[in-house]
Design brief:
It is a single chain. Helix content is 29%, strand content 12%. It has helices at residues 12-17, 35-38, 64-73, 91-102, 114-120, 150-158, 169-173, 215-223, 241-253, 265-269; strands at residues 9-10, 24-28, 45-46, 81-85, 108-111, 162-165, 196-198, 233-236, 259-262. The strands form two sheets. It has a five-stranded parallel beta sheet with strand order 1-5-4-2-3. It is globular.
């Protein structure tokens, strides 16, 4: 059984064969922004999740106009095929892809396995930062059909609709406020949103090479927790990066038609006055 939308995924060989393709732009997006200057795929540009994609003042993304300016500077046109990859099994690569879709860019793909697989195969990395001719990019209005906000999440929870908590089991239980081995900060309370089921993001990828699991394996994981394609699904984590990977898996690998990512996630929910939680 193949993925529902295999066109959203490419392998490392495909990327290696398109390094000089003017219609393709490769983007590295990592949790650790220092990885890119240490070595990246030839021709790849860096899009940092925090300094590039986040608004400098508001807890929100860059505006539509700022997004368009970023794309123009990176030599990305509206019809450019953009391929994302990064560390942490492509957490922030999926996050960046999700934001590109939010502002209407359609030709997007993930390099399966990310940096880990590229390095395992001993493919070359370079330190030269490329520059591209500026384009005239026109961003679309934000597509809120793929993004969930807190009031919608509350209504979703009250209606006992499908909510996927992709954090670690100890974050879900409330024992920890952050991932293991990370500073325990960011929320005043621990636990999970009522009605949410625990399906850690890591269950969707192969530990050996960071590639996505097969369709059959993914179906067993999500349908086994009653997360099915015929309902509305919202995924969340702490800040929306791990849940963007789950969003990608459900929407494009399994073909769920109605999936949203709640990027406010636990840093918002765990600090909201009068928001219900369970432990």
């Amino acid at each position: 059984m193949s993925y529902a939308h295999p066109e959203y995924l490419v392998d490392t060989e495909w990327v290696a064969n398109h390094l000089n393709d003017a219609t393709v732009r490769i983007i590295e997006s990592d949790e650790d922004p220092l990885l890119y200057p240490m070595g990246h795929i030839a021709g790849a540009v860096q899009v940092d999740w925090f300094s590039t994609l986040q608004h400098p003042v508001r807890r929100d993304f860059v505006t539509k106009e700022q997004f368009a300016e970023m794309c123009a500077k990176l030599g990305i046109a509206n019809d450019t095929t953009v391929v994302f990859y990064g560390d942490k099994s492509n957490w922030f690569a999926c996050y960046a892809l999700w934001l590109f879709e939010y502002y209407g860019h359609k030709n997007v793909k993930i390099m399966n396995g990310g940096r880990a697989k590229w390095e395992q195969e001993k493919r070359p990395l370079v330190r030269e930062t490329p520059s591209y001719a500026r384009t005239a990019y026109s961003a679309k209005e934000a597509d809120k059909s793929i993004r969930a906000f807190r009031d919608e999440v509350l209504a979703h929870s009250n209606a006992k609709k499908a909510l996927v908590d992709v954090r670690s089991p100890k974050e879900y239980s409330g024992e920890m406020l952050h991932m293991p081995n990370y500073p325990q900060e960011g929320a005043t309370r621990g636990g999970h949103i009522p009605a949410a089921v625990s399906i850690p993001w890591s269950q969707a990828v192969n530990e050996a090479d960071a590639t996505f699991k097969t369709t059959e394996e993914l179906v067993a994981i999500y349908e086994g927790k009653n997360i099915k394609a015929d309902g509305d699904v919202i995924a969340y984590c702490r800040i929306g990066e791990r849940s963007s990977l789950t969003w990608f898996v459900l929407k494009y690998l399994l073909g769920y038609p109605n999936v949203k990512n709640y990027d406010g996630s636990w840093t918002e929910w765990g600090n909201l006055v009068d928001a219900p939680i369970e432990k």
